[in-house]
Amino acid sequence: MDHRARLLAAVTVPPLVTAAVGLMHPPTLTVEAAHHWQMMHTILLPVFPLLALGPWLVARRSSHAAGVVVGVLAFVYACFYTSLDVIAGIAAGAVKHDGGVGLGTLFRVAGDLGDVGSYAYFAASAVALAVAARDLGLQRVAPGAVLVAVGAIMFWQEHVYRPWGVLAMALLAAGWGWIALVARTPDREPESATA
Fold first, then answer.
1. Potential cystine with 15: which of 30, 77, 98, 172 (Cβ 3.0-4.6 Å)?
2. What is the DSSP string of 5-72?
3. What is the widest separation between alpha-carbon atoms in the chain?
4. How do residues 164-177 score in pLDDT, each as one tens digit?
5. pLDDT > 70 in the chain, percent
6. In 10 A of CB 108, how many CB atoms?
7. Quick check: helix, strand or coil at residue 152?
8. 148, 176 Cβ separation under 8 angstroms
C-alpha cells in the first residue's frame, strides 16, 4: 500500500466506522434501549479518539510545528470527547438500566466535557486546513475544507445520532479523504550516486 492510500485509509476509516455504529444509535435513552446504548458507546470508546487522525496527519505533513500544535489539540479532543462517551454513553446507559437516578447530572457534566473536546477538534481542524491550504492551494483544499467544517459542526451538535450525526461522520470522512487525495507525496531523500 502506498503512502497516499495509507493516509486515505487512516483519515476515512475511523469516521466511517463511527457512522456505521451511529446508524444503530437509539434516538433516546430508555430503559429498553439502555443496554444497547451502553454497548454501542463501549464499541465507540477506542474509535472516537481516532477521529483526531484526520487533522493530525494532514498537519504533520506540512511542518513539525503544525503537527505538534494539532497533536496537542487532538489529544485534548481525544481526552475530553472520550469522557463524553464514557459518561453520557456507558455510564448513562448503566444508570438508566438501574432506574435513572442522577441521569440529568451525568448528561450535563458529559455535555460540558464534550464541548471542550469539540472546540479542540474545531481548532485542530482549522490549523490543519490552514496549513493544507497554504501548501496545496486554497482552491484544491476548499471542497474538503467545507466538508470538514460542516461535518465538525454537525458532530458537535448531533454527536452520532442518526441521521445528522451519521451524516457528520460521512462528511468528515469525505473531507479528510479529499485532502488526502490532493496531498502531494512527501519528498524522498535523493538517492546516492553509485559508481
1. 172
2. HHHHHHHHHHHHHHHHHHTT--SS--TTTHHHHHHHHHHHTTTGGGGGHHHHHHHHHH-HHHHHHHHH
3. 79
4. 999 999 999 999 99
5. 93
6. 12
7. helix
8. yes
Please state, in angstroms and rounded to a whole number, the distance separating the CA atoms of residues 80 and 120: 9
**What is the 8-class DSSP label of residue 167?**
H
Determine the residue type at 108. R
All three cell numbers of 46: 477506542
Do 90 and 79 form a contact (C-beta atoms < 8 A)?
no
Tell me the C-alpha distance between 78 and 48, whole Å: 7
C-alpha cell at 153: 459542526
pTM of the model: 0.89
Residue 190 and residue 60: Cα distance in Å, rounded?
Answer: 21
Q: How many CB atoms lie within 10 A of CB 164?
A: 14
